[in-house]
Fold:
Amino acid sequence: MPDSPAAVSYLLKLGELTLKGENRGGFERALRRNARSLLRGTGAQLIATDGRYFIHASEHASEKIEFALDHLFGIAGWAKTRFCEKTIEAVCKACVEEARALLASGAGGCAVKTFKVEARRADKSFPLESYGIMAVAGEAVLAGVPALKVDVHKPDAVITVEIREKAYIYAGCRKGLRGLPVGTAGRGLLLLSGGIDSPVAGFLMAGRGMSIDAVHFHAYPYTSKEARDKVVRLAEILGRYTLGVRLHIVGFTDVQMRIKENAPAPWTTILLRMAMMEAAESIARQERCKCLISGESLSQVASQTIENIRCTESRVTLPILRPLIGMDKETIIRISEKIGAYTTSILPYEDCCVLFNPKHPALRGDAGEAAAYYEQLEIGALIEEAVRERDERKPSFSERRHPS
Ligand code: ATP
Ligand code: MG
Structure:
């Protein structure tokens, strides 16, 4: 462990995976693997002891480490900690330093006037019990930082002392993403448009442990290169949370033309969605994805009425996960902003779906009728060709994962 003054440590608090009983080991292994991957290049060391995770590094890596921790599913929170020798004198000194820092910069943006000290003694050979540590360190803070008062019921800040192989002192814990470590729930194939919803859908499923591949359908030259670049960028942003996203880019111009020229106009959107799902399922099977993921939200647009959703999924047998199905747009936008996708998602672009958008789309398509129109198109070979000819990209999360 780096012990120089320029060293920095972080304590990670585990989230839901502590509830995993016998499976906990597998979840923790995945968490460690993901954390090490995100921390690569920072020189940080991840150490797991007594059910606690610590990161030790040098101070200049702290911005990158904090960026990594903000993108790691499976942790409930994290705190930057001081550490010192296991003597009560050293602990008191570190508590006073922490209290001075709190007084100077506040906690979570609020001024700090009151505090309390909490202590946990994992190393029982430490001569003082937890209560004794709290009392002595509390006195030291009162003496060293007279502007602060003790409030044991509703303090502005809690200074925590943990006695382990060293003594750790921290105040304030930043919220983690929670959820489960990516890679513990198989792989899903996300239908990624250039809009707001689908990146959010991918993010939510990654938070349940899914690794994410994505497929994007474009209709070049009717859709632009910029529209396509934007989707690559969205895959890159999502990939910061998922240790990368492999993106499959499928040219769907011929499929769309076949639909436009051979189906009644009100049905074209539904039939295109059916074709997209069929193509996506074919890719999913080749890439060992266990499900499809879409950004549909019930009744958000004409193609997302429950009747049309039934038509859309009628050609596929893999499960289709729709994590946004019951969410309103404002909630979805809030998540989009939080994950850093929103400003890219709202850049003007044209999606292939709106290209031949009928003026009066069928709002409540009958599944039998949809199947009959779809059969008439004899579109299977065109879809397979589009899938075969797809482009594959894996935007590098390793270069982009840290702020430059
Ligand atoms: P988004 O904001 O994700 O574009 P949306 O509200 O615009 O969604 P639709 O255009 O009806 O809704 O699309 C519904 C879902 O279908 C999308 O969330 C996405 O999962 C999928 N989808 C739509 N267009 C494409 C595309 N060009 N390539 C891949 N998937 C797509
Ligand atoms: Mg869209």
In short: Residues 268-286 form the longest helix (19 residues). Confidence is low (pLDDT under 50) at residues 399-404. The domain at 187-401 is CATH 3.40.50.620 (Rossmann fold). The pocket of adenosine-5'-triphosphate (ligand 1) is lined by residues 191-193, 195-198, 215-217, 294-296, 300-301, 303-304, 351-353 (CB under 6 Å).
